[in-house]
Structures are given as C-alpha cells and as structure tokens.
C-alpha cells in the first residue's frame, strides 16, 4: 500500500487530491491546520507548512508507523496579492506569499526527503500555475496577460525552479518531481472565479502522484500537456 501526504488538504484542490488518492487505495495523510477538516477516508496530520518543528513532527508520525513516504503533494499556498497590481505590490505581499508557497514547500520537502528516499519510488507533485510561466508572461498570452500578481506568480516561478533542482538532485533515489497546473478552479484562492471544479483540478496532480518508475521528472504541465517555463 502506498503512503501519501498532501499539504493544505482541508479544502479546495488539496482536499480533492487527498480524497482521490485515498479512493485509489493509498493511505493518505491529510496535512491540515484543523484536524476536523481532513476529508473522509484520510488520516489528519497537523501541518502548518511554515513551521519546521511541526513538519518534522509530521515526518516522525509517518516514519514511526510506515518508515517511508511514497507520495508528497505540495499543495498548500496563499496568494497574498490577489487583486493587487504589480505596481502596488509591497515587500509584505511578497513575504506573506513566499512564506507559505515557497519557503513552506522547502520546509515540508526537506522534512520528508529521508522518508521519500526510503520509498525507493517516491513522487513529489508541486502545485503550480501557468501564471508562473515566464515565457507566457513575456509573450503576454492568455491568462498571463490578465492575472498579473507580482507575489503569487513569481512565487510559483520560484516553485518551478525548485521542482527542477529537486528533480535533478533526487533522481538517483528513484524520486520523480513534477510541477502541475490544475487549471482555473473555483476555490477560495480564486474568489471562486474559476470555471473548473476542484475535483477536475486535482486530476492532473493525482496522475503525476501515481506515475510509474519510467515516468517523467522535472516537468511543468497541465491536463493539456507541457507548459513553457
Ligand atoms: N484554484 C486555482 O484556480 C488554482 C490555479 C492554479 C494553481 N493553483 C494552486 O493549487 C493549490 C491549491 O489551491 P486552491 O485553489 O485549492 O487554494 P485554497 O482553496 O485557497 O486552499 C489553500 C490551502 O492551503 C492551505 N494553507 C494555507 N496556508 C497554509 C499554511 N501556512 N500551512 C498549511 N496549509 C496552508 C489552506 O489551509 P487552511 O484551510 O488551514 O487555511 C488550504 O487548505 C495552490 O498551490 C494553488 O496555488 C490553484
């Protein structure tokens, strides 16, 4: 049986990812800040991604029982500058956003790497967005022309870079690391502006979480295929 951990699993897309992985028969630890928010069929584990001691404790809980972790989905994020133009964004907007969406990912990943290595076929899925694409932003294409958040978009560009660095570093341990864009979903993060349901957004993450050993690593994709960096 595969063991999975999903951060930010109490609501939105993360909750759906946790639910869908559990439906596939995995033992899923739902990383939550309120244990009552974990979806049915999962096991709540307290996890504020900004707290290294809490992340270490979550790793200890999983490690003591299973000795390994097969799937880590870094889903938790905040958008500290929703509706703020790049010209109005401040260092504080950046700090708030990066604290969870970048530093939080490193905090949790760092805590879980020994357990992922112990799996021998670990999978890391980083929840990113096409808004992170410097190429699409430079071309002022599609959504990237409309949604111009300085903190959120650039935090996800940093996450994309982390994805490639981790992919290269961890390939010798059989760990595949990929970044996925769930598409524009109706969740709290988007003020429910998205056209897709959270369950639809979760599907691409579940696919990357369940890759076989010959699957890709260091990629950036959505349900429609590869995205440009
Ligand atoms: N929705 C979209 O259209 C869309 C598009 C592209 C990418 N994404 C990405 O998909 C992921 C999920 O987005 P979403 O729309 O489902 O967001 P959401 O509904 O706003 O949910 C965010 C989740 O992150 C958790 N979180 C926030 N700060 C945290 C912290 N310090 N420690 C632990 N958990 C924390 C929240 O937990 P609490 O309940 O405890 O606050 C919540 O579970 C994010 O990475 C987002 O950037 C979303």
TrEMBL record:
The keyword Hydrolase does not apply. Keywords: NADP, Oxidoreductase. Gene3D superfamilies: NAD(P)-binding Rossmann-like Domain. The keyword Cell inner membrane does not apply. Belongs to the short-chain dehydrogenases/reductases (SDR) family. PANTHER family: (+)-NEOMENTHOL DEHYDROGENASE, SHORT-CHAIN DEHYDROGENASE_REDUCTASE. This is SDR family NAD(P)-dependent oxidoreductase. It comes from Microtetraspora glauca.
